[in-house]
Automatic annotation (TrEMBL):
Gene3D superfamilies: Leucine Aminopeptidase, subunit E, domain 1, Zn peptidases. It is an enzyme of class 3 (hydrolase). The active site is at K287, R361. This is Probable cytosol aminopeptidase. Its main location: cytoplasm. The keyword Metal-binding applies. SUPFAM superfamilies: Macro domain-like, Zn-dependent exopeptidases. Its cofactor is Mn(2+). InterPro entries: Leucine_aapep/pepB, Macro_dom-like, Peptidase_M17_C, Peptidase_M17_leu_NH2_pept, Peptidase_M17_N. Presumably involved in the processing and regular turnover of intracellular proteins. Catalyzes the removal of unsubstituted N-terminal amino acids from various peptides.
Length: 513
């Protein structure tokens, strides 16, 4: 993991491989003028105030995410200056937003892969800005190379470069409590989010339900989190028909993992529930060719929940957080659940399985019913649940549904605050009729149109009476199949981790209901 430190040192005398500065499009400019962002004054002075002009000559426009490298001025101990675009210069009385800084830091960190140390001289106006730059740098420096030659040894892999090893944030106040706390938070959240990315990127032959549970057990021991793992025998004894039904076709048995972080000062309790299908073939309702290759990512919801609980523990948040990981592998075989089978769920409801590729809602239903027994103040489930949500919102935005409008708004606002695009979605009652079954209490499929909303309505049936609940469908942003952008890599993204952590923080402060 990339190291993160604060420093008041001047950029010219700092030993590093590169100095990172920000550049923006000048406000009210029609000629493409550039301005050097605050934080880089010492660097600009070394160019006799002409850094913007030099960058413009080199083709820089100040566009968000643009990277321009140039030799450092005489007297600098760092040989390279890297200018990263911040987009439009903010109005006179405002500063660059935290998400702008987070993305810029991520781009710069990724561009400096292979370097040992970089000093970031980006705009630092307060502790949140420090946290955003630190978070962006740590997330942008991420690389998954465990399966590449020499990758496990932290050396440059045969096909790439080692991540940037150390980031020093200039302009921060190392002795200021707020600044130190911002760095500590950025480190804890980023490290756990990157751990979630590692899990999502791990091939399914190495990450089955049992292996995932073992990772959770090791982390729980390290961070003082209570853990309970229900194996197939315990699931059978407990009547978890949904989880067992989904895992019935696999040689790897399912698991239900409960992670409990408690604080002696907590006044509220949150439950997070994650879909953990470690590989989804579709089961008997086999996915068509071309739709299987990335299905190792179908446990992204469980990875997000796991990471959020550990982050809450590391931050010592004054809120009780319980994480439920519903883990199974969905495979076709002679023992697999068939379309037309009826499963008796943990709640006692029966479900007619019309499509075995609608399996995520089955494992979540059991976990949600179990989580409801603790009577938490709110439940949030996270899942790569439906292709319909991807069609509706694209690859970078997740949908949020809830049985309480105010709580749905709170989740969306928390996501926006941490830089995760989301959108509130409805749960129309009229769509419930499509899940009527002549055989069971409910079917696991309904109308094709609005399929993401149908899935949410199905889950709602398994929430305990009177409990507040939200459903977060991350099917789009959980796995990035295109090129990296901002602080988001190709592959597993860690979507929803930061939203869950923020919800826990707001609850601890008493600012969430």
């Amino acid at each position: 993991m990339t190291a993160l430190t604060l420093s008041t040192a001047a950029a010219p005398g700092l030993r590093a491989d590169a100095i990172v500065v920000g550049v923006a499009k000048a406000a009210a400019s029609k000629s493409g003028d550039l301005v050097v962002a605050p934080g880089a004054e010492a660097v600009d002075k070394a160019y006799d105030g002409g850094l913007a002009g030099v960058l413009k000559t080199l083709g820089a426009s100040g566009g968000e995410g643009e990277v321009t490298k140039l030799p450092s001025p005489s007297g600098f101990k760092a040989p390279v200056v890297l200018a990263v675009g911040l987009g439009a210069q903010p109005d006179k009385d405002t500063s660059f937003g935290t998400e702008t800084l987070r993305r810029a830091a991520g781009v710069a960190a990724r561009a400096l892969a292979g370097s040992k140390k970089a000093a970031f001289a980006l705009p630092v106006t307060d502790a949140p800005a420090v946290g955003a730059i630190g978070e962006g740098a740590l997330l942008g420096a991420y690389a998954f190379d465990a399966y590449k030659e020499n990758g496990k040894n932290g050396k440059n892999s045969k096909n790439g470069k080692a991540p940037l090893a150390e980031v020093t944030l200039l302009g921060g106040k190392p002795r200021d409590k707020a600044y130190k706390a911002a760095v500590e938070r950025a480190t804890a959240v980023s490290e756990e989010l990157n751990r979630a990315r590692d899990l999502v990127n791990t091939p399914p032959n190495d990450l089955n339900p049992e292996a995932f549970a073992a990772v959770a057990q090791a982390a729980a021991k390290e961070h003082g989190i209570k853990i309970q793992v229900l194996d197939e025998k315990a699931l059978e004894k407990g009547g978890y028909g949904g989880i067992l039904g989904v895992g019935a076709g696999s040689a790897s048995a399912p698991r239900l993992v409960k992670l409990s972080y408690t604080s002696s000062k907590a006044k509220k309790h949150l439950a997070f529930v994650g879909k953990g299908i470690t590989y989804d073939s579709g089961g008997i309702s086999l996915k068509p060719a071309g739709h299987n290759e990335t299905m190792k990512c179908d446990m992204s919801g469980a990875a997000a929940v796991f990471a959020a609980v550990v982050a809450a523990a590391r931050l010592g948040l004054e809120v009780n957080v319980t994480g439920w990981l519903a883990l199974a592998e969905n495979m076709p075989s002679g023992s697999a659940t068939r379309p037309g089978d009826v499963l008796r769920m943990y709640s006692g409801k029966t479900v007619e399985v019309l499509n075995t590729d609608a399996e995520g809602r089955l494992v979540l239903a059991d976990a949600l019913a179990k989580a409801s027994e603790d009577k938490p103040d709110a439940i949030v489930d996270v899942a790569t649940l439906t292709g319909a949500m991807v069609l509706a919102l694209g690859n970078r935005t997740f949908g949020v549904m809830a049985n309480d409008d105010a709580f749905r708004t709170a989740v969306v606002e928390a996501a926006e605050e941490v830089g995760e695009p989301s959108w509130p979605m409805p749960l129309p009652d009229h769509l419930k009729k499509g899940m009527d079954s002549p055989t069971a209490d409910i079917a696991n499929m309904g109308e094709r149109m609005g399929g993401g909303l149908v899935a949410g309505l199905f889950l709602k049936e398994f929430i305990g009476e009177g409990l507040t609940w939200a459903h977060v469908d991350i099917a789009g942003p959980a796995f990035n199949e295109s090129g990296p952008f901002g602080y988001t890599p190709k592959g597993g993204t860690g979507s929803a981790v930061r939203t869950l952590v923020r919800l826990a923080e707001l609850t601890a402060k008493g600012d969430l209901g």
